[in-house]
Amino acid sequence: MLSTRKGERGLLRSFRYRARSLIAGQCCFCQVIPAGSAGLCPICTGLLPHLLNQCQRCALPLASPEDSHCPQCLSQPPELDSAYAAFLYGYPVNRMVAAFKYRNQLAAGRALSLTLAQHIAEQPALADVDYLLPVPMHWGKQLRRGFNQAELVARDLGKVLGLRLQANLIKARRRKAAQQQLDKLQRRRNLQGVFYIPANRAGAIAGRHILLVDDVITTGATLNTLAWLLKLAGAHRVSACALARVP
């Protein structure tokens, strides 16, 4: 147990944001091997739990490569028209996301974001996206954290994919309670009244295909709430992408 904890602490230390590492082109994971375009070397990239077979509507992992949708989406289609995640939310991606969100280790988040961008570029369902919309964060929470991690991911995606970022199409009216320990129904209730579309932004939504961007998809409650609001405002299609999907 002690050696495992030491190993995990060492892994987190390796994600520290160091400008000299980026300039030198070293892998942000091992900091030894030269990195590829996503900031990771080929060996470390192969160690990550890539999500290769997933539901086209909610990004849940599927057992068979012949399936395209999970049973839940077939019986009760979500508000989202499509969803995509680059990784399973498991070790070491969960540690990388935590380092990114809570320890300001931006290199870890950027490496995952650039890998996600490469995968999105290969998805036909996302070929006609008009805007990237990061999941909004209440201004008080963003002020305390210093950044909205979904917006940082969206900025990286926009630069790679040549897509416009629209960070203010939806705003958070109030802070929602922490959702980590809530089930799907509790999350839906927790989100009631949290988000709204400013009156002057509705014109930018009508008839558009909007790609929501988040760090992790857990139950999909937040993304489906946002998709519902966008479709009420006239969005033609709403998709979502995230760094990782909780299986």
UniProtKB/TrEMBL annotation:
<dbReference type="InterPro" id="IPR051910">
    <property type="entry name" value="ComF/GntX_DNA_util-trans"/>
</dbReference>
<dbReference type="InterPro" id="IPR029057">
    <property type="entry name" value="PRTase-like"/>
</dbReference>
<dbReference type="InterPro" id="IPR000836">
    <property type="entry name" value="PRTase_dom"/>
</dbReference>
<comment type="similarity">
    <text>Belongs to the ComF/GntX family.</text>
</comment>
<feature type="domain" description="Phosphoribosyltransferase">
    <location>
        <begin position="144"/>
        <end position="245"/>
    </location>
</feature>
<protein>
    <submittedName>
        <fullName>ComF family protein</fullName>
    </submittedName>
</protein>
<dbReference type="Pfam" id="PF00156">
    <property type="entry name" value="Pribosyltran"/>
</dbReference>
